[in-house]
Design goal:
By secondary structure, the chain is mainly alpha-helical. Helices cover 70% and strands 6% of the residues. The protein folds into two domains: 252 residues, no CATH class; 222 residues, Serine Threonine Protein Phosphatase 5, Tetratricopeptide repeat (Alpha Horseshoe), CATH 1.25.40.10. α14 runs antiparallel to α15 and α18 packs antiparallel against α19.
C-alpha cells in the first residue's frame, strides 16, 4: 500500500454540508475560466489530500464498480477510480469521469451492499453527464450573483445610509438568493436523478438496494444534527429523509430487495476493510477492533498489518503464514508478505512471495512494480535486467505511474545504460509536471540513443515539453518549477 500526494480535494457529490458548498460554488464559479477541468473543491482550504495505491483495494473496487458501469452503459475503461485517505463517508465524481472514494466509506460501511449503493449513485452521475454540466451552472449562478451585487453597490453609493442603502442590501441578497436557488434546483435534480438511476442499476444486476437504505438511515441523524435549522430550499442534495424514503420504497417493491450479494464480494469487502483499518488506524485501535479472540481471516489480516506497522515484522509474518496456507490462491496475502520482508531490509527473501503474487495476479501493475523493486535491490546484473522486465510489464499495464518510471530509470542507470535511464526519467518528469527537467532529459536521451522507437519517443517528449506546446496550466507549472530551481 502506497500513499501519494494528489490534486486538491474536489466537490463531494455525497455528503458535503450545504452552506460550505454554497460558499465554494460562488468562489469556484469565478475560477471556471481558469480551472474549467476541475468541477469543484472541498470545503475549507484547498489543501492537498493523500491518495492511496493498493492493488487489492483497487481490484476489489473494480469488482464492485465495473458491473455497475456496464449496467449503466458506461465503458469501465473510461472511468478512473482513485482512493482518498479521508475518514468521512464520501464518494464523488469529477470531470473526466474520475471517481474518488474515501477510505472512510469502506471502513464505516457494514457490508458490500452499502458500498455498492453509493457507487451506484455515483455511476448515475457519470451516466447522466452531471459533472460535465456543473461548471456552466456554477458560472451562470456566479454571473447572476455578481450582477445583482453591482446593482446593489450602485444603489448603495446613491443611497448612503438612508433607505436606499437598505434597499441595496436587499437587491444584493435577493440576487444571490435567486442565483444560488437556481443552482440548488439544478444540483438537487441531479441527486434525485442519480438516486433513481443507481437503484435501477442495482436491480439490473440483481443486487439489493437495502444497503443504501441502511447507510442513509445512519447518515440521517448526522445530517439533521449539522443542518437541522436550514431551510430545505437551501440544500445541495435532497434531505437524507427524502432520499431514504425513496430508496426504502424502491427496496420494498424491488425483486432484488432481499437478494444477497455474491459471496466473493462480501469476503473481499471484509478483507479490504480490515486492510484499510490496519494500515490507517493506530495499531492499538486495530487491536481493539480485531481482538486476538476473533479467528476470522479479516481479523487476522488486520492484526498482522498492525504488528508490521508496530515494527514486529516476524510476528506479522507468523500471523500471515496460516492465512496463506488457508488461501493459497490469494495474491494479496503473498504481496503483503513480500512488502513486509522488503521493508524489513530482506529483499532477497521478498522475491519468493512477490513472484507468487505476480504469478497469481499478472495483470496487477503495482505488484509487478513491487517485484521489480525487490529485484532492483538484489543488485546483480541478472536481477537488474529482470527488474527492468518487471517495470516494463508494469508500465504496459499502467503507463502513467511516475514512480515506476523512476524505478526503471534507476535500474538502467545501475547497468550503465544512461540514455535509457534519461528517457525513463524524462517520462517521470513529464508526468510530475517538471517540464524543464523533461526537456533536458529528453534532449540528452535523444542525442545518445540509436535510431529507433526509443529515440523517437525522446523527440516526442522534448516537443511536448516545449513551452509553446504546454497548456496555460502547464505553463504556470513550468514557471513555478523554474523558480524553485533557481
Amino acid at each position: 500500500m502506497r500513499k501519494a500526494w494528489s490534486l486538491p480535494d474536489m466537490r463531494s457529490a455525497w455528503c458535503l454540508p450545504a452552506w460550505s458548498l454554497l460558499k465554494l460554488l460562488v468562489m469556484l464559479a469565478s475560477l471556471v475560466p481558469f480551472f474549467a477541468p476541475v468541477a469543484a473543491r472541498a470545503q475549507g482550504a484547498a489543501a492537498p489530500v493523500v491518495t492511496i495505491r493498493d492493488a487489492e483495494t483497487e481490484a476489489f473496487l473494480r469488482a464492485v464498480a465495473h458491473p455497475l458501469f456496464r449496467a449503466a452503459g458506461v465503458d469501465p475503461a473510461l472511468v478512473r477510480i482513485t482512493l482518498v485517505q479521508a475518514r468521512p463517508i464520501n464518494a464523488f465524481v469529477t470531470t473526466g469521469n474520475r471517481m474518488f472514494i474515501n477510505t472512510g466509506l469502506i471502513q464505516q460501511a457494514e457490508g458490500v451492499a452499502e458500498l455498492a449503493g453509493v457507487l451506484a449513485h455515483e455511476t448515475g452521475h457519470i451516466a447522466g453527464g452531471h459533472v460535465a454540466r456543473l461548471p456552466e451552472e456554477m458560472r451562470n449562478a456566479f454571473l447572476k450573483s455578481i450582477g445583482g451585487m453591482m446593482l446593489g453597490l450602485g444603489a448603495a453609493v446613491g443611497g448612503g445610509r438612508n433607505v436606499g442603502g437598505n434597499a441595496a442590501g436587499a437587491v444584493m441578497l435577493g440576487s444571490q438568493s435567486m442565483a444560488m436557488g437556481e443552482l440548488y434546483a439544478f444540483t438537487r435534480a441531479q441527486e434525485q436523478a442519480a438516486d433513481q438511476a443507481g437503484v435501477a442499476y442495482l436491480d439490473r444486476l440483481g443486487w439489493s438496494s437495502r444497503g443504501l437504505v441502511r447507510l442513509l438511515g445512519r447518515m440521517q441523524d448526522q445530517e439533521l444534527l449539522a443542518v437541522g435549522r436550514q431551510d430545505p430550499y437551501f440544500r445541495t442534495h435532497p434531505l437524507s429523509r427524502d432520499r431514504l424514503a425513496f430508496v426504502t420504497e424502491h427496496a420494498a417493491r424491488s425483486r432484488a430487495g432481499d437478494a444477497a450479494y455474491p459471496p466473493a464480494l462480501e469476503a473481499g469487502f471484509r478483507m479490504v476493510r480490515a486492510k484499510l483499518d490496519g494500515f490507517i488506524e493506530a495499531p492499538l485501535t486495530t487491536g481493539r477492533r480485531y481482538p486476538d479472540t476473533d479467528p476470522a481471516a479479516a481479523a487476522r489480516y488486520a492484526r498482522a498489518i498492525a504488528q508490521y506497522r508496530s515494527g514486529r515484522a516476524d510476528l506479522a509474518l507468523q500471523i500471515l503464514a496460516p492465512l496463506v496456507r488457508d488461501q493459497p490462491g490469494n495474491p494479496w496475502l503473498r504481496e503483503l508478505q513480500g512488502q513486509i520482508l522488503f521493508e524489513a531490509g530482506r529483499p532477497a527473501e521478498a522475491l519468493v512471495p512477490l513472484r507468487d503474487a505476480a504469478r497469481l495476479a499478472p495483470a496487477e501493475a503495482l505488484i509487478r512494480t513491487a517485484l521489480g523493486r525487490a529485484l532492483l535491490e538484489a543488485g546483480d546484473p541478472a536481477s537488474l535486467r529482470a527488474a527492468i522486465g518487471e517495470f516494463e510489464s508494469s508500465l504496459r499495464l499502467e503507463r502513467d505511474n511516475a514512480f515506476t518510471w523512476r524505478q526503471l530509470g534507476i535500474a538502467h542507470g545501475r547497468l550503465g545504460e544512461m540514455p535509457q535511464a534519461d528517457l525513463a526519467l524524462a517520462e517521470e518528469a513529464m508526468l510530475l509536471g517538471d517540464f524543464p527537467g523533461a526537456r533536458m532529459l529528453a534532449r540528452r536521451a535523444e542525442e545518445t540513443l540509436p535510431p529507433g522507437p526509443p529515440r523517437l519517443r525522446a523527440q516526442d517528449l522534448r516537443e511536448a515539453a516545449k513551452r509553446d506546446n504546454l497548456t496555460p496550466e502547464q505553463r504556470a507549472q513550468d514557471d513555478a518549477m523554474r523558480r524553485r530551481q533557481r
